[in-house]
Amino acid sequence: MRRHTTALLALLTLSALSMALTPSGPALAAPRLGECPTGALCLWERAGFSGARHLYELSDTDIESCIPLRAGVSAQSLANRTGRPVTTYQSTECQETGEYETYPGSGTWSPQSPYRVRAFKIWES
User: Looking at the domain that runs over 34-122, which CATH code has it been given?
Assistant: First the structure.
């Protein structure tokens, strides 16, 4: 992995700490995650899981192929519930000369991508 999803880890750590510090429940409201079904990759046009959602399922997505988003569409937040690693790319051709990041398939929510996602690859494992 070229980058780590540090923002998400910090958010989850803060949420866990707030629950540990208050016996009656979390001191801060937990962040609202976007709706994304099991087995899917969900991309939202804006940060914080807002704006139009684009859903990709394993059954209709080529594994290990570059999947560009439609012309004029990009994403700023995502949820990977495919069960497989997913790499998002700033480039529409999945070129590694631009920014890219791999998200584990174990159920990863990222409320803010460090760049506009324009393409992705779902990996075999």
Answer: 2.60.20.10
